[in-house]
Amino acid sequence: MPKTDTKKTKKQIILEEAATLFREKGYSATTMRDIAGKVGVEAASLYNHIKSKEQILSKICFSLADTYTTKINLIKDAKESPINKIKELLLLHLEINAMSSPLASVMNDEWRHLTEPEKSEFLNQRRNYENHFLTIIEEGMKDGSVVVEDSKIALYTMLSSIRWLQHWYHANRDMDVEGIKATIIGLLMNGIEKK
Asked: What is the pTM of this model?
């Protein structure tokens, strides 16, 4: 997500610090006491802002899932070419995996620890997003602008080709994120072979 100048709320700080811990130690190994220590508050006062570790995980997963859902709902019916829609969605993935990397890591790696009914809701939201993305790719296949034989292989190759950024960029924040995005979009849309 893009950085803003607005002051972060205590809840936002808790979610971000918890995400960092979940990524470093894993969700199961992180305690509320660990989170309180990272935030710099007493464990008891943490509960004034968040009810449980499970609620933190749920808020992290759904905050990003809602961002993806909102974006694809805007894009899927827009009067744009399938190629432009795909580029916009890939840029969203690049932005989230670079600028919100701990949150993205938690959503991608720790969602399995969600409890019901949140786990089913999350998986349903993810499935709907992927189905909409597949439809856009298939529209491109129909009009000849996307030259792949299998839309699912194309989708999961593109998404997995971006996921590594959540770990790498976190350790390389001095690099120009716009340049990184342009390079990755070029690779995903055009390949590396000279035509």
From this structure: 0.88
